[in-house]
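Sequence, please.
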């Protein structure tokens, strides 16, 4: 039955749109104005049709793009309703990327949106046609590991990786960067250890994943936002979610990594 369903689930791409961000010197040839649409169309077909990469079960899949140099792709999983679209996320990356030399931000390269034609079975088992939109963001790939990967024991030789790591310098630089973002009214709002990476070699902090970031324009409470979900009665209801502040997230991340280093060096 599963095989039959797969055969019936036929897809084609109806249209694609690309938004190029800052120049990417390493991939100039691939992204030159005369050829980029052709190159990106082939790439998008691979990303959106043969999705034979391993997902990490989160809201997004992030995987390397072998056609390009030091570029990875973030693709949202179909059933998530993101706070920021990937294009909005890319705009945040571009803006905050200019704030500091001491903190690395992945440079956005291209945002891709495709409109896909899908034929699938509906709940009654009939074949129906539908159009769906999907997005991906190509950005520079960071050579490093997230603090979460270190805490979860997913890094080989963690002590060797951390041999030049200075937590005070790392978190002071990160703190200055957060201050600068806040001066510019930008709040990341999701700075947990999975979204802070350490660049291999330089040990510089890397901030990723601006999927929850927001700008505040007045004095609204940017750390609270309203979400709607269906309650037990089947009615839509409004719930207020509260984000942990960026500064508090930094304090938590520092404490966790110091504890981990203590355990590793015991
Ligand atoms: N530019 C990048 N370079 C290298 N690894 C990345 C990059 N962006 C994301 N990752 C890896 O992919 C994981 C998930 O990415 P993220 O943007 O945080 O997605 P999600 O919204 O699912 O949390 C990160 O924890 C990190 O390990
Ligand atoms: Mg994340």
């Amino acid at each position: 039955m599963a095989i039959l369903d797969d055969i019936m689930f036929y897809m084609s791409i109806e249209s694609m749109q690309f938004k190029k961000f800052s120049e990417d010197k390493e991939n100039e040839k691939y992204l030159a104005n005369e050829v980029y649409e052709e190159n990106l169309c082939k790439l998008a077909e691979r990303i959106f049709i043969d999705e034979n990469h391993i997902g990490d079960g989160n809201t997004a899949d992030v995987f390397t793009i072998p056609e390009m140099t030091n570029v990875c792709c973030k693709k949202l999983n179909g059933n998530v309703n993101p706070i920021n679209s990937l294009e909005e996320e890319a705009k945040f990356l571009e803006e905050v990327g200019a704030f500091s030399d001491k903190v690395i931000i992945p440079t956005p390269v291209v945002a891709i949106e495709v409109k896909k034609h899908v034929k699938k079975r509906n709940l009654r088992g009939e074949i129906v046609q539908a159009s769906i939109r999907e997005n991906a963001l190509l950005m520079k790939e960071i050579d490093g590991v997230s603090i979460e990967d270190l805490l979860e024991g997913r890094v080989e030789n963690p002590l060797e990786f951390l041999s030049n790591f200075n937590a005070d310098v790392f978190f002071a630089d990160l703190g200055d960067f957060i201050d600068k973002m806040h001066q510019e009214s930008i709040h990341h709002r999701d700075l947990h250890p999975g979204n802070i990476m350490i660049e291999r070699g330089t040990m510089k902090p890397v901030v990723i994943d601006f999927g929850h970031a927001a700008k505040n324009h007045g004095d609204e409470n940017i750390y609270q936002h309203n979400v709607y979900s269906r309650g037990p009665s089947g009615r839509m209801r409004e719930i207020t979610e509260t984000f942990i502040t960026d500064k508090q997230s930094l304090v938590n991340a520092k404490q966790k990594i110091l504890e981990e280093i203590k355990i590793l060096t015991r």
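The first strand starts at residue 10 and ends at 20.
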